[in-house]
Write a structure and sequence with these properties.
Blueprint (H helix, E strand, L loop, with lengths): L8 E4 L2 H6 L11 H16 L7 H9 L2 H11 L5 E3 L2 E5 L7 H11 L3 E5 L6 H16 L7 E5 L4 H10 L2 E5 L2 H7 L9 E5 L3 E7 H6 L3 H11 L11 E7 L3 H19 L4 H17 L4 E2 L8 E4 L16 E6 L14 E7 L3 H11 L6 E4 L9 E2 L2 E2 H4 L1 E3 L4
Parallel strand pairs: 3-4, 3-6, 4-5, 6-7, 8-9, 8-13, 9-12, 11-12, 13-14
Antiparallel strand pairs: 1-5, 2-17, 10-11, 15-16
């Protein structure tokens, strides 16, 4: 299939490289050459003055540092005769700046050549990451043919051509984006991984919170989970569930500390402020009994729900818009733990308690359970997918 390159903007790589990608020999998973490239990228990122101004870029640098990659590899143990599947076509989301890089680096770690459609939105972090990646490739030129970063409008013909090149297609986006991309056929043996629009929740044990010494540190952790990316990531909690006896006192203290931290480090854009008020009105008109329980400054909008269900989550917001519910037990949140629920962030609730509850209730959702401050930590098991298994093939010998 011929591709009109007049409609493509190459950010890293060029037309000849793109056309040659299907002919590139794949690497084994966690190949030393790939690890060396990522070590260099990590070092450059963590030393870069411009990168240090962006926490999500710094987090990316930590994610692929040598010790971190060694831990990932150790998790999988020996991977004999496991190679990349070929070409991976990544469609990155527009609202989370660093997401494209995690997707790309995962494709590299699993031995594949990678075509990445970058976010159309002008994120400063994207330019920084691309610059540092180019600098790392300059020290590892043999791997340059395995990375092609580009931009284009939502054109069916380009989606068709790039999909025809790939052996795995990874789509990050909402239901509409996935439906649009799926109009482009894949090769018969190609595989697709779709990361659809989902939501996440947080659960706090009130009594444990009141006993916690460093409430400012916990406020910082929750800030990193939520407002660091405007709650745009699927893994950022939009519903906060309270458990325990002293919920009223704990809620007041928690939001007091969180508001103080957000007031120092978060800038609420005017359009986001308007959107939050609109969302509040929609909730009030749609769900009887909802109650606004936050202050009037609109930095944080908190809506107390009389009950929880999957439908009310359709009106969740971002940029400091939180639904809130006081529960008797984890059983009360089962209605919001369907397949669209991705992450459960917890504080003061033992993992054994959550594990027992999951085994007893078996919700269709909740693919991750993490402590506060860890919801954005990308891993090679994401959205219920084992990405190493999905992005590699095994050669059976003997």
């Amino acid at each position: 299939m011929q591709l009109s390159f007049n409609d493509l903007t190459f950010i890293l790589g060029d037309e000849a490289q793109l056309r040659a990608m299907p002919e590139q020999a794949t690497y084994p998973a966690f190949a030393p050459e790939i690890l060396a490239l990522l070590h260099t990228f990590s070092r450059l990122t963590l030393q870069d003055a411009e990168a240090k101004a962006w926490p999500d870029v710094v987090s990316l640098g930590f994610w692929c540092r040598e010790a971190s990659l060694a831990q990932m590899q150790a998790t999988y143990g020996d991977l004999p005769n496991r190679y990349g599947r070929g070409v991976v076509f990544h469609i990155a989301p527009g609202n989370v700046a660093a997401n494209f890089a995690y997707s790309l680096l995962t494709g590299l770690l699993t031995g594949n050549a990678n075509i990445v459609r970058l976010p159309g939105r002008d994120h400063p972090q994207v330019a920084i990451i691309v610059r540092l990646l180019a600098a790392a490739l300059a020290q590892h030129p043999a791997l340059a043919p395995y990375i092609c970063l580009l931009r284009y409008e939502r054109q069916q013909s380009i989606n068709d051509a790039l999909s025809a090149l790939c052996d795995t297609r990874i789509i990050w986006g909402g239901d509409e984006t996935i439906a649009q991309i799926r109009r482009s056929p894949l090769k018969p043996r190609a595989r697709e991984i779709a990361f659809a629009d989902r939501y996440s929740i947080a659960a706090i044990d009130a009594d444990s919170y009141l006993a916690h010494v460093d409430k400012d540190k916990l406020a910082r952790a929750f800030f990193n989970d939520t407002l660091l990316n405007d709650q745009n990531a699927c893994s950022s909690p939009s519903l906060v569930v309270w458990l325990g006896k002293e919920t009223q006192v704990a809620r007041e203290l928690f939001w007091q500390h969180f508001h103080a931290f957000a007031a120092r480090f978060y800038t609420l854009e005017p359009v986001a402020a308007v959107n939050k008020l609109t969302r509040l009105c929609l909730l009030g008109a749609t769900w009887p009994g909802v109650k606004k329980v936050s202050a009037d400054d609109n930095l944080l909008v908190r809506i107390e729900l009389p009950e929880v269900n999957s439908a009310v989550m359709d009106l969740r917001g971002n940029c400091g818009f939180f639904l809130e519910y006081v529960a008797e037990s984890l059983d009360d949140i089962v209605p919001v733990c369907g397949e669209r629920c991705q992450t459960l962030a917890t504080f003061g609730i033992e993992n054994a308690v959550v594990t027992e509850w999951l085994a007893a209730r078996r919700p269709q959702g909740i693919d991750r359970v993490v402590p506060f401050g860890r919801t954005l930590d990308f891993t090679l098991q994401w959205d219920g997918y084992d990405l190493v298994a999905m992005l590699t093939r095994t050669v059976a010998i003997g």
